[in-house]
Every structure is written in C-alpha cells, then in structure tokens.
Specification:
alpha+beta, 5 helices, about 375 residues, 8-stranded antiparallel β-sheet, about 60% helix
C-alpha cells in the first residue's frame, strides 16, 4: 500500500519568480527525475521530484489543473496550493508529449476519484432515502459508482537506469522567456516635448538592454556548458577512433591467423558490427558538434545585438543630457524674464503712486483756486 511510482522521466525544473511573476528561476542545476506517484490510501496522484535530499516538486494533481506546452520541449502547470507555477524542460518533444499525456490521464482519474468520493459521501449521508437516491442518479454517475477503483500498477523503485534522458541534455535552453524586448519610438526633435518623454524612452532601452543581458547570461552559461560537452565528446571521439583502429588491427590479425575459420568469421562479423556502431556514434557526435557550433554562432549574434543596443542607449542618453541642458537654459531665461517683469511692475507701481500724489496736489490746488475765485 502507500504511494507507488507510476511514470518517471528526466527534465530540468523551473519555477516562476515570486517577485516578478514573469521570469523563470531554475530549481535544479541539471536534469533530475520527475515522477508521477499514486497514493492508494487517499486515492490521489502527485508529481514529485527530488534533487538530492531536497524536494523541488511536490504537487498534487487536481481536476482543475492544466498542463500547457509552451514550446516543443517545454511545458508548465500552475499549482494553486503551492502558489507557484512549475516549468519542465525536456530533452526531446516525445518526452514532453508522454509527460503531457500522463498528466491528462491522471487528471481525469483524479476527477473520477473525486466524483466517486463525493457520491459515496452523499449516499452515506442519506441512508434512509437509498431508494430515492438510487432512482435519481444519472447514468454517468452510475457508471462512476460501478467502476472499479483506480489502482496503480506495482512498479519497482526508481533507479538511475529507469529514467529517460542523460545529464548533459540541455532542455533548459528551451525555456521561454516570459518578457521579451520591444522596439521603442524614435525621439522627437522638439526640445520641450521630448524632454518630458525622453526618460520613458531611456527606461524602455534600459529594460530592453536588461532583458538582452539576461538572455546573454543564459546563452553564455549554455555556451560554457556546450564547450565542456564538446571537449568531453572530443575525448570520446578520440577514444572511439582508437577503439576502431584497435578493432581493425584485431580483424587484420585474425584474418592473417585463420582466414577460413568459422570462429574467426564470427569474430570478424561481430567486430565489423561494433565498428559500424562506433562509426554511427561518431557521426552522431559530429552532428551534435555542428549543432553546438550553430548555437555558438547564435550566441555571437546576441553579443553583437547587445553591443548595438548599448551604443543606441548611450546615444539616447547623450541626447537626453543635451535636451536637459537646453531645458535648464530655457528655465533660466524664463526666470530672468520673470525677474524683469517683477522690476517693471514695481516701477509701474511707483509711477502710479507718484501720479496719484500729483493728482491729489492738483485737486487741492484747484479747490484753492476755486475758493479764491469765489472770494473775489
């Protein structure tokens, strides 16, 4: 009883960044075993993965979960209980398809188990109305009730030989990046309007450069690992070539010793078969080397794009500084004009006060003259 492993594969594990909810954070340094487990006591299915003694995935499959294929080798699902989104990078599309098919199968089994448990609870909660309940149950629910419990096939514990894939498979490079860089608008030649919009454009270029830096870091890590794999495969190629030469020499020696012997013929056939297998392995490694060369070229292109965007960002920053200087100059001019207007207004107030005094003196003089005239 207890939990039994049902299906196992190997994949690189990611989780969504809890801070940004956009970027993927790797939770395993290399490909690890990811297994479906069935708990017969609780009748639940779980996805479990261990990296050493650390559980990087412990997700219970519920009927409302959905596994989404985001690329040919990458898939993801959301776990509301763990409040996170898990992502898996596989070594091939077939491994991803098998994992997705198993996810859909166990999700349906979990749904049927949930309906069955709910039906049992309803039947046990109303024992006195058994006949009425039995008559009102729909055919689909009757099928669920009559269906035998879902039992997991007994499998042996997981071993390193029972999993799919190898440690050097780089499925992690298939993880899509949730946020991609987008091109910005061209700057305007008008000084004042652009001075307000230039910080937004500068932030846009900075975000684009940061995204490219992140992609560049990932490509650099993949390139370093690919370089290490290339060295290892070159050593393997040299070992295969030495083994092939040794086998050729062995075949020649056997032909010289006894060309007509049946034993020698069988040994020769076996050695030729081994040589063919080694040649096929050499060809596969050469194809892998070509693919790695293409990835290196792609990484170099990303480097050139990053440098170009850095130059563009520098030009935008210089333009922004020039516009800020123009804005400062215009603000100084406006302040000077304001001060001149204040001085002019003060002068006008003084003249008005002086004019009011003169008008008052003239009115007094007129009244004095009028009184003199009346007296005369």
């Amino acid at each position: 009883m207890g939990e039994q492993p049902i299906f196992s594969t190997r994949a690189h594990i990611f989780q969504i960044d809890p801070a940004t909810k956009k970027n993927w954070v790797p939770t395993s340094k290399h490909a690890v075993t990811v297994s479906y487990f069935f708990d017969s006591t609780r009748n639940v299915y779980r996805i479990i993965s261990l990296d050493g003694s650390k559980a990087v995935i412990n997700s219970t499959i519920t009927p409302n979960m959905t596994f989404t294929k985001t690329s040919q080798k990458f898939g993801q699902w959301a776990d509301s209980r763990a409040n996170t989104v898990y992502g898996l990078g596989f070594s091939s599309e077939s491994h991803l398809s098998k994992f997705a098919d198993k996810f859909a199968e166990f999700k349906e089994a979990a749904r049927l188990a949930k309906e069955k448990s709910q039906e049992k609870m309803e039947l046990s909660g109303t024992p006195s109305q058994g006949g009425a309940v039995k008559r009102s149950v729909s055919p689909a629910v009757k099928h669920v009730i009559k269906k035998e419990p879902v039992a997991a096939p007994p499998l042996s514990p997981l071993t390193s030989e029972s999993v799919n894939g190898t440690e050097d498979e780089r499925a992690a490079t298939e993880a899509p990046q949730p946020s991609e860089a987008r091109g910005g608008a061209e700057p305007s030649h008008n000084a004042l309007p652009f001075s307000h919009s230039s910080p937004g454009i500068s932030k846009h270029w900075e975000a684009e450069l940061a995204a490219l830096k992140g992609n560049n870091a990932k490509l650099t890590a993949a390139l370093l690992e690919s370089t290490a794999n290339v060295k290892q495969w070159k050593q393997q190629l040299a070992a295969y070539q030495e083994e092939a030469e040794r086998l050729h020499k062995r075949v020649t020696e056997l032909e010289c010793v006894s060309g007509q012997s049946t034993t020698v013929r069988s040994d020769k056939t076996e050695l030729n078969r081994t040589i063919e297998e080694l040649e096929e392995a050499l060809k596969a490694k050469e194809d892998e080397l070509e693919r790695l060369k293409m990835e290196v070229q792609s990484a170099n292109q990303f480097h050139s794009q990053r440098d170009s965007l850095a130059h563009k960002l520098q030009a935008v920053e210089l333009r922004n500084q020039a516009l800020e200087a123009q804005l400062d100059e215009l603000e100084q001019r406006v302040e000077a004009d304001q001060r001149e207007r204040d001085v002019f207004r003060q002068s006008l107030r003084s003249l008005l006060q002086l004019l009011d005094g003169k008008i008052l003196e003239l009115s007094e003089l007129r009244e004095a003259l009028a009184k003199l005239l009346e007296c005369s």
